[in-house]
UniProtKB/TrEMBL annotation:
Its main location: membrane. It is found in: Membrane. This is Late embryogenesis abundant protein LEA-2 subgroup domain-containing protein. The lineage of its organism: Eukaryota, Viridiplantae, Streptophyta, Embryophyta, Tracheophyta. One of its GO terms (biological process) is defense response to other organism. The chain crosses the membrane at residues 20-37.
Length: 188
């Protein structure tokens, strides 16, 4: 039986090392592609459409707000959004929330969830602040976006569900209806 020369052993060791390195890289890349990532959320548009002040008692105001939330799917699995709920506060006072359901997002795609919020009964103390902020052209809102749903692959639902809560402070330009500043934090 012939003995292996030292140079052959080195070549075999390098080949084994290369083979294991390639296998590990392929496994890591495969797990990144196959991992069911939670979707990204972002408020794309938010504007105060109209404010109607009630001068007679009880003094207050009705406020109409339109908003659009982008749900971006970062994985290859499709998403069925069972519930999309956006709550809006102004100066610590809850104005209301918009709820939507039944949205479908394909893999590596995104969708816009649009909604209108009509709030009546903003207290008179807050009406003055809101009108002052609108005259300045900038209004701060605090929003909480909750999205819940499940993953699926091809036409089969995967038994994995997700729930994401995103709290944002949003500064809206009331003249151009653009979002000037948005600071968001994901919550558990």
């Amino acid at each position: 039986m012939a003995k292996a020369s030292p140079s052959n052993c080195v070549v075999l060791r390098r080949f084994c090392f290369l083979k294991w390195t390639v296998a590990m890289v392929v496994c890591a890349a495969g797990s990144l592609v196959l991992w069911p990532w939670s979707p990204e959320l972002k408020i794309e548009r938010m504007s105060v459409k109209r404010v109607r002040v009630h001068p007679l008692p009880p003094v207050g105001a009705d406020v109409w707000i339109t908003l659009s939330v982008v749900v971006k799917n970062r994985g290859m699995y499709w998403l069925d959004l069972a519930d999309v709920d956006v709550g809006v506060k102004y100066r610590g006072k809850k104005m209301g929330h918009v709820e939507s359901e039944g949205w479908h997002v394909r893999g590596w795609a995104s969708t816009n969830v649009d909604g209108d919020l009509e709030f009546s009964g903003l207290p008179s103390t807050e009406v003055a602040h809101l009108l002052e902020d609108m005259a300045k052209g900038e209004v701060y809102f605090h929003t909480v976006i909750e999205v819940a749903g499940e993953f699926g692959f091809l036409s089969i639902p995967v038994p994995l569900t997700f729930k994401i809560i995103l709290a944002c402070e949003v500064l809206v330009n009331t003249k151009s209806h653009a979002i000037i500043l948005q600071h968001c934090i994901y919550k558990d």
